[in-house]
Amino acid sequence: MWKLLCALAASAAPFWESAAPSAWTEAQLAGLFEDSPWARPALVSRQGLEPAVVVYLASAKPMQDAEDEWMRRRVKNPDRLLFDEYRDHLREKPGAYVVLAVAALPAALSDPKESARMEEECRLRVGRRTYRLAGHFPPTQADPHLRLLFPRDVRAGDKSLSFELYLPGVAGPYRTAEFETKTLVYRGRPEM
Hints:
The chain is of the alpha+beta class. The chain is built from 6 helices and 11 strands.
């Protein structure tokens, strides 16, 4: 009986597939941004005391749902303008980008040299292909995430998405984050 209960629990659909975003608890919502198939810590290449930086694939449908729910619950001011502009950009070019969201320090991007360095040094590796940053949306008071846009070219057989990042204003600014494509499944389909 115990084995049957464990098997049933393991086969249960995750909350992001079985419940509407409005029914997600605060802990579930936070968990999607911190510990889900679409969220990873961006690691530094050497051991040190650098603070953890969690990144997530903002272009994935469950993460878009989580962002919308987070905004619905918390943001009541007109400072959503840049976030809405970002979402409009994605709607105009559906499927064109893989978007990585990073909690960022807005002041760090105010330095044009640091911003240019980020634009030059951020990369996405998929298989043996490498893509440069296609654009970015800076963080705002309503949306504290830097959004990095990369061309979407994920093919059958690609095993991972590996981001090489330069993040201005973060101790240990050179970071990497890797996502296994086989874990990025939502309702039976790949979501990135």
